[in-house]
User: What shape does this take?
Amino acid sequence: MALKCGIVGLPNVGKSTLFNCLSSAKAQSANFPFCTIEPNVGIITVPDERLNKLSELVKPERIMPTTVEIVDIAGLVKGASKGEGLGNQFLGNIRECNAIIHVLRCFDDGNIIHVDGSVDPVRDKDVIDMELQLKDLEAVEKRLDKAKKAARTGDKEAMKMLAIIEKYQSHLEAGKSIRSLEMDEESMKLVGDMQLITEKPVLYVCNVDEDSAVSGNKHTKAVEELVKDEECEVMYLCAGMESDISELETFEEKQMFLEELGLEEPGVSYLIKKAYKLLKLETYFTAGVKEVRAWTIDVGMKAPQAAGVIHTDFEKGFIRAEVIKYVDFVELGSEATCREKGKLNVEGKEYVVQDGDVMHFRFNV
Assistant: This one.
């Protein structure tokens, strides 16, 4: 399951620094606006200690973690929706993403220029939100004329489509993002091809100074208060500190560094977990001597669909799934022992896969 997140924010809020920490790609990071002039794409390995533990037990030939694709989109500014700065080119990149990581500057530093002259994450959020809403409004208004013509024929589905698009228009004109509009699933499917930007789930990342990495500060509190009624996720990290952590060579060095700062894990690991929660995703595993691998699925996915993530033939010819709970596998140490102790369950087409399940699929095509 390909997962793509787009990093957005005003220039000089720490987007490219965060991107560099997240991925092996190295974006240019500089103290001036628009240092990212092409959308950078990086692949992140999703951290999961369970994968490491399974690998220790199975000792496979290779370990395959699941990944997330991150797109670093150039700093947006007021007027981006009308083509100011690098607006139009990069707003298009966001449409292809599953979720938005919105970076907000929540630290004071006179040496790093703010595009609007002062640090105010609430104002910054409003600027980005407005630009994305205006871009969506442009797309909605383009679709509106077409919908009106179709509805004149009296076709019931066309009339329903028009009503939804008009609802979208009113909501955006009121300065609200589409994700805050209550819609039934059928209506969302009707207009799903519009790929509206403000419909995408958002994770607000407050980029703080090192002293605020554990408990936040006045800026993060202002952000949390602002978005308390939104269906979103909020976290804070110090991008500069994360950059230092990413440069350390060994796991032990990184852990010592984190302990000194009072942190349990790197902020970038926490960010990926937050993104998974935001997108309602979870992980199951396949474990054999050839390969131990993590697979990403939607929460609530049934066994045949989960098998289809590996290959469509697995779903088409699904017979059954052999399932071991992660805790049982770790406690007993092997698939053979789990089978012997009655901890391997045979499940059918209606089985809802649980996070951490170790699975083997039987199929026939």
Remarks:
- The longest strand covers residues 291-298.
- The two ends are 22 Å apart (CA to CA).
- Residues 28 and 35 are 6 Å apart (CA to CA).
- The chain has 14 helices and twelve strands.
